[in-house]
Amino acid sequence: EGRETRLRVVLRVRPLTGTETRRGDRQVVHSLGDGAVHVSAARHDATFGFSAVFDAGASQEAVFEGSGMRQLVELAIDGFSCTVFAFGQTGSGKTYTLMGPLAQSETQPASPALLGLMQRSFTCLLEQSRSLGSDLALSASYLEIYNEQVRDLLSPGPPCALPLRWSKTRGFYVENQLSVEFESLEAIVSLLLQGSQRRRTSAHALNRHSSRSHALLTIHVRSRAVSASCSWAGLGGSGLSATVGGAAPSKQGTLCFVDLAGSERVKETGSSGELSVEANSINRSLLALGHCISVLAKPRGKRTHIPYRDSKLTRLLARSLGGSGITLMVACISPSSRCLSETLSTLHYASRARRVTTRP
To answer: Which positions bind ATP (predicted)?
Structure first.
């Protein structure tokens, strides 16, 4: 608590798709073990290091356990602000990593082995709350940023734009956002699937189900430990908000999942008209995020103004990136030679992020 903590950055390399294999694309990304990955192609020969690398054969469970996701859940229960976000080129496996197969629904759930970081975290959260004996109150909010408009994915009726405000106590926040309480795994998975089905997606040359918005699902965790012995070892006193009439201290933590829309080159995707407008909006916000990360990666004494206000995405991620949060970044890439330029861009982006520090 209060000490400088580096962002944890892990890499996931998806398998070559059937289309890429039939086309004769070469695999240019190879895992070297111990968190290292090597890119080998004409005029490009580079090695990158991360906290962990998951190659094409890694299971969804291996990604959950090896990324440190379980620890994030425990820290959220203990009152910390925790964020995990997936980023990378369109079609690189971000939504699959977070949610699992796109075809799942409440009537047709995904196979347990294919469930993503979100559902596995929900299960872990509910198991932890039962084992701790805490009086835990859980609620969820779900929004998307589409063409620089913030829209609630849980409110009934057509999604409408919500104002983004700033206050000294709360930082940037979304006004009038709906928060729904839940007590079971079925209830939170239902909220996740309902919201995801309302999210803007379109088909283009690189991805039949391309996300056209950035989505943020936030789990709010309010707990009041039954006794002081329930505090996590080594972190006692963190995240405390109030002690009333001798009752055990209250803690308020959050666990935020951010599924970023994929970076894309209009020439590669064949986008035109509305799709092109969406792509430009996506790329502008990702560029703003990259700019913030570049500034934050500098030593604290050499940092200039951090341009959080350049986009709604960076405003909402300000606390996670450079403030008091604990953040896990999952960089997703394609191993295909055809995607080399975007893959290198993602790897450099992720390498810079490893130098960013926060003070949880």
So the answer is: 88-95
